[in-house]
Structures
1.
Amino acid sequence: MAELHKNLIDGEWVGTEGVENINPSNITEIVGIYARATADETQRAIAAAKAAFPAWSRSGILERHAILSRTSQEMLARKAELGELLSREEGKTLPEGIGEVTRAAQIFDFFAGEVLRLAGETLPSVRPGVGVEVTREPIGVIGIITPWNFPIAIPAWKIAPALAYGNTVVIKPADLVPGSAWAIVDILVRAGLPKGVLNLVMGKGSVVGQAMLDSKDVAAISFTGSVGTGKRVAAASVEHNRKFQLEMGGKNPTIVLDDADLNVAVETVAQSAFFSTGQRCTASSRVIVTHGIHDRFVDALAERVRNLRVGHALGKDTEIGPVVDPSQLRQDTDYIEFGKAEGARLVAGGERVKADTEGYFLQPALFTEATNQMRISREEIFGPVAGVIRVKDYEEALATANDTEFGLSAGIVTTSLKYATHFKRNAEAGMVMVNVPTAGVDFHVPFGGRKGSSYGPREQGKYAAEFFSVVKTAYTAAG
Ligand SMILES: NC(=O)C1=CN([C@@H]2O[C@H](COP(=O)(O)OP(=O)(O)OC[C@H]3O[C@@H](n4cnc5c(N)ncnc54)[C@H](OP(=O)(O)O)[C@@H]3O)[C@@H](O)[C@H]2O)C=CC1
Ligand SMILES: O=C(O)CCC(=O)C(=O)O
C-alpha cells in the first residue's frame, strides 16, 4: 500500500485515510495516496494560520529571505524528480513538467529577493512640519485555491508572495493534483517555516474550499480556476468584507496577417493552441487569419496538427500529453461535436488516440470555416481544440479578436511594425504577444487579464505586492 500524504495543520501532518491520485497517461497507475481534509480540519488550519500571524508578520526579513531561497534551491536540485511527479499527476509532457518546476523555483527565488527590497515612501505633507510615510503591511491569513492545470507554478506564485510580504497561508490545491502542492509544502516546512505559517488542506472544493470561503478569519483569497467558482469566491468575499483576486477563463485570439512569416505563424499557433494539451487559460483557441495567407496557413497548420505526437506524458517523443481526466475529455469531445454541428469544418485531429497505456489521449482538433459567433469561439473549452476564423483585413481581425467577454492574452503574427504597434495598444487583453505564443509567460512580470478573465490586482513580479500587502499612510508632526 502506498504511503499516505497527509495534510499539514499547525505544523502537524494529519490524516488517517486518503484517495488515489491517478495518472491520466495510464489510469492503472496510482501516483500516490493523498488525504482529504474535512471542513473542521480546514477551520483548524485557518485558526492555526491566524495564531501564527502576529509572530510571522513581524519576523525578520533575513529569516523570510532564507526560507524562500532554500525552497527555490531544493526545487531546482530536485527538478527532474518533481517534474516527473507533475507529469504523472497532470499529464504534461516531461519537458513541460520540468520546465514548470524550474519556473516555480525561479518564483521562490524572485520573492526571496523581494523580501529584501520591501520599501515604502516618504513624502512632505501639505501641512508644513508634518511628514508622511507610506508603508506596506501584511494582511493576515491568505486563503489560496488553485486549479489542476499548473499544479506547481500556480501554488508557487501565490504562496511565495503571500509569505514574502509577511502573511500566513492556508492552501487548498485542486483535488485532481494534490501531489505537487504537497511537495512544495514539504520543502517549505523543511526549509524552516515556523508552525502554523503555512497550512495544507487537500480535498474537495465543495468541502475544503467552501469552508475557506465561509470563514471570517480568512482576510484575503487568491483564486485561479473556472468562472463559475470565481463568482462564488467573489460573492462570499464581499459578504465577509475580504480582499480577493480571481484568475479565470480565457478565449484568447491569435491573429495571423498576410505579411506573417508562415513558419513562425504555424509554430506560434500550434504552441498556443495545443501544447500542454490546450489546458491553459492562456491557450489560443480563436485563430483569426486574413484572406491572403489563409489557405497556405491552414494547409501548413493542418499538416502540423495531424503530425503532433500524442502519447504518455513521459514518452520520449511525446509532444502532447493526455487530457487530465474523463470529465475534461468529455468537455473537449462535446465541443468538437458542437463545432461540427454549427457548421465549422474539422480539418485535422479530434479523434481518440490509442497508446500502449490506457490514458485520456486525444489528437488535437483544428476547425476551419469557424465564425466568432459559434460556441467553439465564445466558450472556454480548456482542451486541444481551435478554430480558424477567416477575415478580410487587420481592422476586421482586431474587431473580431476583441469581440469576446474575456481578455487574458491576445497574440498577433506579423512582420509589420505598424500593425504590431497598433495591436499592442488596442487589444483588449491583459497580456499581448507579438510573434510569440499567447501561452507560456515569464515569472518576473505581471500576469492577469481584463474583462471577464480576471478581477483584482495582477499576480507575479513586483506587482504582486498590491494584492498580498496593504498600504498604510502615517502622518508625523515634527513637534
Ligand atoms: N483559468 C484557469 O487557469 C483555469 C480555468 N479552468 C476552467 O474551469 C473548468 C473546470 O475546471 P475545474 O478545475 O473544475 O475548475 P474549478 O473552478 O471548479 O476549480 C478550481 C479550484 O476551485 C475549487 N473549488 C471548486 N468548488 C469550490 C467551492 N464551492 N468553493 C471553493 N473552492 C472550490 C476546486 O476544487 P476541486 O479541485 O475539488 O474541484 C479547485 O481547487 C475548466 O474546464 C476550465 O474551463 C480550470 C482550471 C484553471
Ligand atoms: O501560460 C502560462 O504560462 C500560464 C498559464 C496559466 O497560468 C493558466 O493556464 O492557468
2.
Amino acid sequence: MSAGYGAPTPGASAVSKNIAVLAGDGIGPEVMAAAVKVVRKVGELYGHRFNFEDYKVGGAAWAAAEAAGDTPTHLPASTLEGCEKSDAILFGSVGGPVDQQHEPRWKDCEKNALLGLRKRFKLAVNLRPSKVYPFLSHLCPLKPSIIGTGVDMVIIRELVGGIYFGEHKRDGDKAFDVMEYTVEGIRKPMVFAFEAARLRRKKVTVVDKANVLECSRLWREVAREVHKGYPDVELDFMYIDNACMQVIQKPSFFDVVATGNMFGDILSDAASVLPGSLGLMPSASLGDGLHMYEPSGGSAPDIAGKGVANPIAQILSGAMMLRYSFQLEKEAAAVEAACEEVLKSGRLTGDLLEESQRSNAVSTSAIGDAVVVALKGP
Ligand SMILES: NC(=O)C1=CN([C@@H]2O[C@H](COP(=O)(O)OP(=O)(O)OC[C@H]3O[C@@H](n4cnc5c(N)ncnc54)[C@H](O)[C@@H]3O)[C@@H](O)[C@H]2O)C=CC1
Ligand SMILES: CC(C)CC(=O)C(=O)O
Ligand SMILES: [Mg+2]
C-alpha cells in the first residue's frame, strides 16, 4: 500500500477489473446506481472493462435471507466470497433508522457487516478528504473570512482497531467497551499519513486524547518515532475536543490529520460541514491488497427511497477506487472533474440547497446522469 495521495500516475493501458458492489441499506442502492453508471462510463471512454457484481450486505442481506427462509445474516458467506474474488469493493452504507437499532434486522448490523468487512480485509487505513470547492463556498456555513484562507485536509483514520473492535460487554448495571492499540496497529496509518503529507503541504496533526488515554500516549510515541524518517514534514498534536472546534473555527490549519478509529469517525462528520454536506464526502479504506470505497456518511434513513440523496460522495468514492486500486489517475481525475462541472453548473441535490430553494433540487439519478454526460474521455 502506498500513500500516492494526489500523486500523478501515468495513464494505464486498457484494464479489466471485477468490482464487488455492496449497495446495502437506506440510500445505499440509490447513490450506488449513480456511481456504477459513472464508473462504467469512464471505463467505456478510456477502453477499460469493469465488471460489476452485486452482493447483499447489512439489513438488505438479512431481509433477503429471511424472505428465502434461510438463516439471516448481515454479511453472508456469498458476499465475502464475491469480495475475495474481486479487484475492489464499492460499498454503499448499512444500518436502519437510529431509533430501531433493537430490531433483529438492524441490531449489530453495522458491527457485523461493515466492521466485519473492515476486519476481514484488514482495511486499516481510511482516507477521508474534506475541502471547500471555491465555487460552492456559499454552501459552507462558515464565514467567508474563515474559508477564504483555503480549506483542504485529509483525515487518515485507523480503521480496524480501537474501541470499535475492543471487547464490548454488558454485565448487569455495568457496560464495557475496551480501547486497545498496538504499536503495529498505529504505525500503519501513521506512515501513510506522513507519506500523504509529503505529497501535500507537509504537515501531520495527530488528534488524540493523550491527557487522559494511554492509547493516545502510544499514538504520540509512534508518531514521534515515525516522524524521524520524515524530517521535512511538520508534526503537531491536538486533543480531539479542541480538534472538533478547530476544524470549524480554523479549518485551514489542517493538512493531514492522523487519528484513531472513533476520533476519526467523529471528526470526519464534523469536517463534512466544510464542503457543505456529508453527501460530498467520499472515502477509501485501504487494506493489504483489496481495498474498499465507501461514502463517509451512513444510510440516511430519513431521506431513503425518495430519490433525493446526494450521490457525489459515492461517485467520488468510485474515483478513489480508480486511483488507489486500479492506478487509473486520469480516469479518477476525469470523474472528479465531471462532478465539479455538475456542481458548478448549479445542478444540486436538496442537501446543498437552502430550504427555500429545495423545489429546485435535482434528483439522485439525474445528478448521476449529469456526471455521466459531463465525463470527458482521453
Ligand atoms: N458507513 C456506514 O454504513 C454508516 C452507517 N451508518 C448508519 O446509518 C444509519 C443512519 O445514521 P445517521 O446517524 O443518521 O447518519 P447518516 O450519515 O446516515 O445521516 C446523517 C445526516 O446526513 C444526511 N446525509 C447523509 N448522507 C447523505 C447524502 N448522501 N445526501 C444527502 N444527505 C445525506 C442524512 O439525511 C442525515 O440527515 C444508522 O443506522 C447508522 O448506524 C452511519 C454511518 C456510517
Ligand atoms: C459503524 C460505524 C463505525 C460507521 C461509521 O460511522 C463510519 O465509518 O463513519
Ligand atoms: Mg461515521
